[in-house]
Model the fold of this input.
Amino acid sequence: AQSVTQLDSQVPVFEEAPVELRCNYSSSVSVYLFWYVQYPNQGLQLLLKYLSGSTLVESINGFEAEFNKSQTSFHLRKPSVHISDTAEYFCAVIRSGNYGGSQGNLIFGKGTKLSVKP
Amino acid sequence: GAGVSQSPRYKVAKRGQDVALRCDPISGHVSLFWYQQALGQGPEFLTYFQNEAQLDKSGLPSDRFFAERPEGSVSTLKIQRTQQEDSAVYLCASSLALGVPGELFFGEGSRLTVL
Done:
């Protein structure tokens, strides 16, 4: 079975500061990795994903995450945050390969609340 | 509509009451998922439909929970004889059957409070 650990439940930072949200996973099989974001009063949205290929993946709003197989990590980073990045961020994993009839059974971490202060 | 729509957004039930939560997925999305998110926790998988077929219900916590999607579009999650531990946000998500695994589109959720 897979599991996801997000070590920090809350991360307060000042605007324009760098941030790293940590995510570690455990799995005995190959996995795909995701970061979802939930802005206040909105549903979860896919931020970025790692499926294969380059271990560094980027989002359209400046976030990036690096898949590190040896450390079983998928930390999310942004060099300079904005007030608008205030949200809750969820790391998620799904086993890779043939799904058969059950596609998309994501396993989520508990989430990290990022609070950006002016 | 453009996104996944869930109703009601908020529901307060007395312990022992039955509740029904509705999900209207994105048009054309074959796959539909229900997740439960307790306070301070991440979403946890409940059940999965492909069209009208319920292919995985391994996450349903008890036989009081029942989900259906009779025509392969709108889905209803029903909870019978609600208990306080059922209080949570219930999330619905949909995806293209042949889309990227794990790339789900979520609704805003239905927050259930059982008194």
Summary: The interface with chain B takes residues 4, 6, 9, 32, 34, 36, 41-46, 49, 51, 90, 92, 94, 96, 99, 101-111 of chain A (CB under 8 Å).
